[in-house]
């Protein structure tokens, strides 16, 4: 199955349409200098915060300056081109997306979205859908528009759309194989026809499929057709032929590249490398994709812990030597998982827990999580741990406190949907970093106030202002498709905290405008260990810039979502978003 998957993925790369840009010969001695002029260059460097000119050569920044005369040390005696096409626009560092999943992205993009919020994806718009009747009506419309043997749609959430089970899907589509992917991505719901098509249509076959090491038996329920959390990747394995056809893979790759370009992302990190198709399948696909001359971004591949077999450093040397390149690369960082999904209310919560009495779930049991953390920490690796609830945070912080202190290793909390003020103090005192998912407050702030958490805890989800006050380095991520790959949108959410219903939740927990912009540039780079290369415009760093129609500092936080992106300059080359 994995071999077939690899053949399909690599074959589809040949059909990916390039982003058109003119290739220029690279001269390694900086003999050819391009000077970009802008109305303003926001460097995100505290010692030299703005400029008007930036000189670029060989893919890096050689200098920034207020006027051309100041650039004389780099321009005298060299071949110089002054590019004034951005003279009325604003340059910022290329945005950094510190937590995405490319395999999930290309898997999800071809699917129809039926979710509580509206989505603008390359070439199409999906309106937001709320209410049980409206959801079912849109589902029936999407089914009628599709000829897929197995129809898969994403975005259902019970608090917006009502409960969904195998029996309910059977009533809606008795003659079609249908899978509903829940809004969290951590759960799928299959009807009877779908289970039969996937060869798990009997109780015996279903139980056998999910009776495997590492899978909690309660995470796959034949009666309701629900497969989630530790059982999810086995569910994805069954769906693979329907998700990864050459046509869908091609569409997903093209649209992912366009989405990154349109939203100014030049650097990202894959926080589940190897988790979907295995290292040997995923690495060739993404190496080929990112190594294309016309892909204007790079990615750091951070593996999930179970994918790293044997000695971690031996694994890193082998994998990096076989697949690593300038734009698809590896480092000594690993992804761990604590508790369950925030969008599914599977996060582990301390008392009083959930208002309906249900309990959260562990993706990795605490004792196993501690073993994994110690294994990689002892090998000198940095830890990135998915954690969502305050009970999950207590467990994780306890594990991290028991590790011996080492200055050269990072400990990053990923998502951190709900934490207490006391926990945030511990995070600051321990010198931890956070890569936050701010879209929780936007989508769920009102819904979780009514069901699950209550008004006070729901209002204080994404307690990011608290982290800022404690000096915690902070990145903002999409975890697509938990949020759009759109850093300015993430910064807008974090600095306004305005919900889908238009309510402003816990304004004291808003990020300042400066912190929000740092969290998509220099601090986003810091949480993935790349702030020496990207995240600000400074001599010696990658010449990655995003071209904006206005200065976001002057427009203010509430206008961040209105800032227009014209394209990016990636390693000194211009790529238009149009």
TrEMBL record:
Signal peptide (from-to): 1-21
UniProt keyword Signal present: yes
Gene Ontology molecular function terms on file: hydrolase activity, acting on carbon-nitrogen (but not peptide) bonds
InterPro entries according to UniProt: Amidohydro_3, Metal-dep_hydrolase_composite, Metal_Hydrolase
Keyword annotations of the record: Hydrolase, Signal
Amidohydrolase domain sequence ranges: 90-573
Pfam assignment, any one: Amidohydro_3
PANTHER family xref list: IMIDAZOLONEPROPIONASE (PTHR22642), PROTEIN LONG AFTER FAR-RED 3 (PTHR22642:SF2)
Protein name, as recorded: Amidohydrolase family protein
